[in-house]
Specification:
Layout (H helix, E strand, L loop, with lengths): L1 H23 L5 H26 L2 H30 L14 H10 L10 H11 L14 H25 L9 H21 L1 H7 L6 H20 L2 H8 L9 H8 L5 H10 L16 H17 L10 H7 L4 H12 L3 H20 L5 H7 L5 H12 L3 H10 L1
Helix pairs in contact: 1-2, 1-9, 2-3, 2-9, 3-4, 3-6, 6-7, 13-15, 14-15, 16-17, 16-18
Length: 409
């Protein structure tokens, strides 16, 4: 039992810490951070209440079970809005999105101790919850009948999980890089994790139906161990852990990160920035010794160029070197080394050369319809200043002078 308490306590601490950090984080998308924060906070409540149920403690459960109930009913909607926010690149909730939280509002009404309502039998509630969790709850836990937990809650969860899978499959991000690769990887990863935990939640009922009962404490251990393993996995994926769980950096602003990842000779200031931002130093291209054979270098050059040209990655304004390295499954520092030393340009200049070539190809076609800046934006440039600086660096003159020369030649 002490091991169960320790494991559950550790899991609760991690979930609470990350959810609070996300809620108050200033970097990244504020809306997305809050949605994920509520989702993790609800999971924290589930683990905490499971611990109270396992130990048979009715007094704290009578408080925390009611307190977390609205979060349980908000979590499926938060999950759906969080994933679809990545799919459709939404940064805020629309008025229509707020209707998803009606079940959570009903849950708040459910737990309010209305005048004249009968007292709740928490000893019976704990006993039933200990049997099969909320799926076995028949005792009344508030204003509405017991099936608000035993039927409506699992139905709500599975419905939103199905809707999320339907949206993801329909958007075709499983096959295409519609959103940037890091974000796509995180969205799919989280969707798979949610599916795993929902199926795991049905495991005790299935086992009992086939006469293989499982102790609630064992179920708590399985849940907590799985959560901690997932957290450790994310910890070893800096783009996931620091970009979406801790939000230590804003992944929508890539200029400084590209500099750290592509400069061949980092300065002391670069490493100071790494320390300040709490980003692992392996993101720096030269923080590791490079040992590559000529065959490996030739292979990497072909893979990098093929991926960039076949998939037109340079058209993605938020493209980072970590995205290219991940797509061809090589370390970031090796990818940067090959680009710097064997392609002959740093990452930013290299992708900008593709963008300039694309711009020059599109300009004769679109010049009469849209502005130069609009064509540059289509080519992957984020703003006017970046485009003009890149163009002058690539061609030696500004666009107007370049086209004048072309006309006179």
């Amino acid at each position: 039992m002490q091991f169960v308490n320790f494991l559950a306590g550790t899991t609760c601490f991690c979930l609470l810490l990350i959810s609070l950090h996300l809620f108050f984080a200033k970097n990244g998308s504020r809306t997305q951070n809050i949605l994920l924060s509520i989702l993790l906070f609800a999971r924290f409540g589930q683990v905490l209440n499971s611990l109270f149920i396992t130990t048979g403690r009715t007094e704290p459960l009578s408080i925390f079970f009611q307190f977390f109930t609205p979060f349980y009913f908000a979590a499926p909607a938060c999950f759906y809005l969080y994933i679809t926010g990545f799919v459709y690149e939404k940064t805020a909730l629309s008025k229509r999105d707020w209707f998803h939280f009606i079940p959570s509002l009903l849950a708040i009404i459910h737990i309010i101790p209305w005048p004249g309502s009968e007292a709740l039998n928490w000893e019976l509630i704990v006993k039933e919850l200990h049997a099969d969790g909320y799926l076995s709850l028949e005792a009344k836990s508030g204003l509405f009948p017991s099936y608000i937990h035993s039927l409506f809650r699992p139905l709500l969860t599975m419905t939103y999980l199905g809707l999320t899978w339907f949206t993801v499959v329909k958007s075709k991000i499983l096959k295409k890089n519609i959103i940037d690769h890091t974000t796509q990887h995180w969205a799919i990863f989280l969707l798979k994790i949610a599916t795993f935990f929902q199926l795991l939640g049905l495991l005790p009922v299935i086992l009992r139906n086939i006469s293989l009962p499982i102790e609630n404490s064992i179920f708590v251990v399985i849940n907590c161990a799985a959560l901690l393993l997932i957290l450790l996995y994310a910890l070893h994926k800096p783009s996931l852990f620091y970009g979406f769980l801790l939000v230590a950096i804003d992944w929508s602003k890539n200029e400084w990160k590209e500099k750290l990842a592509t400069d061949h000779k980092p300065t002391p200031n670069d490493f100071d920035l790494l320390e300040i931002m709490k980003i692992p130093k392996q993101l720096s291209a030269t923080s590791k010794k490079i040992n590559l054979s000529e065959e490996q270098i030739a292979l990497y050059i072909n893979l990098i160029k093929k991926e960039m040209e076949d998939e037109c990655l340079y058209l993605n304004q938020d493209l980072q070197i970590i995205d290219v390295a991940t797509r061809i499954n090589i370390p970031v520092h090796q990818c940067s080394f090959v680009i710097n030393n064997h392609i002959g340009k740093n990452f930013r200049d290299w992708i900008n050369s593709y963008r300039i070539a694309y711009f020059l190809k599109q300009y004769p076609i679109l010049a009469d319809k849209i502005t130069i800046e609009a064509i540059a934006q289509e080519a992957g440039f984020k703003n006017q200043a970046t485009f003009y600086n890149a163009f002058k660096k690539e061609k030696g003159v500004m666009p107007t002078a370049y086209f004048s020369q072309e006309l006179n030649s």
